[in-house]
Amino acid sequence: MWTKLKKALKIKYPITFWMLASALLFGTLVVVHAAYSGTADVKRVVSTQASSSTVFSSNYMESGGLAIKSLRTTAEGDFICNVTVCNYDQLDPASPARAQITYSFKAELCRYDTSTESYVVVSEVQTKTIDNVTSNKTFYVKKVMDDNLEIKTDTEHSLNESPFYYEYTDETLAGGTSNKDSFNICFDSAEVDLAVADLFIRVTATPTDESMQQNSGVGILQSVISVSKGRTVETGWYGSLDERTNQDYDGYNLVVEGSGEGTIDILWYDSKFTINPVFISVEGLTPGDATSEGENWKKVTLPVDSTEKNRYVVQFYKKNENTPYTGSEFPSKYIKCSNYQAATSTPEP
């Protein structure tokens, strides 16, 4: 039937036929691209980009739910994480809020409570023992930038003393120009040395009602940040997972980025997650077993070259959509990147 219809259209209405064919082809390409890029997924994956209407944003905090940021480092000593609060979209710094934004910034030392499946503020001072000497762990928050200007007048406000949090109030970002405040949060070296994080710092930026009324795209920003031992992200390629404590999401985006040429392994626990088949097809990859990780682990080896492309977004979907991945069951426990191998050039004879 389609063959006869196609023949009739081509003979009687050649222009109409080719317009129809082009529209069908374009629609197919849009669907394939959307599934691969994550810009219009049918499934509800965690977005890797801020909304274009956002004028209150951060490098680590997000709106619309509690974001989970699991950082890894090979650096020795205490770990400083710089958290920003901005009056513009992270993807569009040139379009700031028109009016001033007044907000509070709160940092809390937390531990995950499995009984309530939530992050709760600790109730006692955390200590460490080195060479038989016991001392308090170092967790603090300190403001280091105000409206793009570096400041050195603030002190380190301990998060390891009752009430185990510190809040800055009446902070402002001037409207009409792109402005950024930033705060350093510090994790003790003993916490950094752990392979799996035990303590977390929850950071929250809460705008005033007046600021939300005067500016569209302004809402509460929040995340829980942890740090543990792992490979450095300063060189080569690495992967980071955008996580949330919201079980309504069907999947998550793994962002793979870096510099240089080589290969990197993408691994996932197959009984809990499945990789986007469009990514596998477009990149021409062949999934295989990752026996070194244990039973049920799968992997693909992705060839990378930053001169051609320096960022990939890979969707992973839950096999059981009703399963929440929170606390000790965070998604990065089951989805990860590892084994980056830099390409070696062959010497010319």
Short description:
The chain has 349 residues and is mainly β. The chain is built from five helices and 23 strands. Strands 1, 5, 6, 12, 14, 15, 16, 17, 19 and 22 form a ten-stranded mixed β-sheet that branches. Strands 2, 9, 10, 11 and 13 form a five-stranded antiparallel β-sheet that branches.
Set out the fold topology:
Layout: H1 2-12, H2 14-37, E1 67-73, E2 79-86, E3 88-89, E4 92-96, E5 101-113, E6 118-121, E7 127-130, E8 133-136, E9 140-146, E10 149-150, E11 157-158, E12 165-173, E13 180-187, H3 189-192, E14 199-207, H4 209-214, E15 221-229, E16 237-244, E17 251-258, E18 261-269, E19 273-275, H5 277-283, E20 288-289, E21 297-305, E22 311-318, E23 335-342
Parallel strand pairs: 1-15
Antiparallel strand pairs: 1-16, 2-13, 3-4, 5-6, 5-12, 5-14, 7-8, 9-10, 9-11, 9-13, 14-15, 16-17, 17-22, 18-21, 18-23, 19-22, 20-21
